[in-house]
Amino acid sequence: MLTVGASDSSGGSGIQADLRTLAAMRMHGASVVTAVVSRNTRGTTDVFPQPTTVVSGQLGSVLEDLPVAAVKTGMFPNPETAVAVAARARSGALPNLVVDPVLEAAGGGSRRGLAAAVERLLPHALVATPNREEASLLVGWEVVTPADMAKAAAQLSSGGPRYVVITGGDFVTGDDAVDMMWADGAARLLHSPRVASRNTDGSGATFATAVAARLAMGDDPVEAVTWSKGFVGRAISDAADWRIGAGTGPIDQFGWSSLTLR
Where would one find coiled-coil regions in this protein (predicted)? Predict the structure, then answer.
């Protein structure tokens, strides 16, 4: 499987989280680095975009040799990089494409401009996995409630991916964390037990990568999303007691917390 996104110096999210997820799922991961991010558990201090020619070169090198079964995209630091990858998707070179629209423009760039570029990629995606903030930027209005999530998912699906999952993040109903999935022309709520933890870094990247990996394994999109939501929930729960850094720590894709090391 191929992941396209940014390198995170803290190891919690981005390419590092993607490759850790794939290793946990016993899949080989290839990668295209779109940016190098100076980051720790307390936040991002700088983003260094890779030249578009370098991103295109990495992508071409992988696709001309490796039998890529699925692709996940994450952070694009600028519109030009997103457009270059969209061109590859338009040619049919990116199978089982899952788009996680991480809308963090580098160098003070316009997030709206980046969203417009990512929108060019969405019609070629099988699944898109924005959070509520990302969905708000993509649809042009604020997504707050589950009803908003359903409406936004339908709107995004009408212009692109057949399946859209808007992750609720900190949106909680009772004891459940709630995501919204648009599939086969209908919205459905996805519930999972809420896990109280400060360690959630990389959960969105892990979810999208797991969905793409399960698609590569032959799951249909609904099965892939359902399995991946459970996988992320366990990874957050397993890392709840970790103390890695002073801020938002990583999650436990490998189930290390349940292992006895000798």
Answer: none
Tell which residue, 87, 142, 138, has the closest CA to residue 112: 138
Rounded to whole angstroms, how far apart are CA atoms 83 and 255? 37
CATH number, domain of 239, equals 3.40.1190.20
pLDDT digits (tens, 9 = 90+) for 34-52: 999 999 999 999 999 999 9
Residues near 68 by beta carbon (within 8 Å), at least 6 away in sequence: 1, 2, 30, 62, 94, 95
Q: For Cα atoms 24, 27, 31, give the angle at the middle one, nearest 5 degrees.
A: 100
pTM: 0.95
Distance CA 99, CA 86 (A): 11
- 42 and 244 Cβ atoms separated by less than 8 Å: no
pLDDT tens digits, one per residue of 73-127: 999 999 999 999 999 999 999 999 999 999 887 776 778 888 999 999 999 999 9
Task: Output the six-digit token pair for 87.
Answer: 């061109």
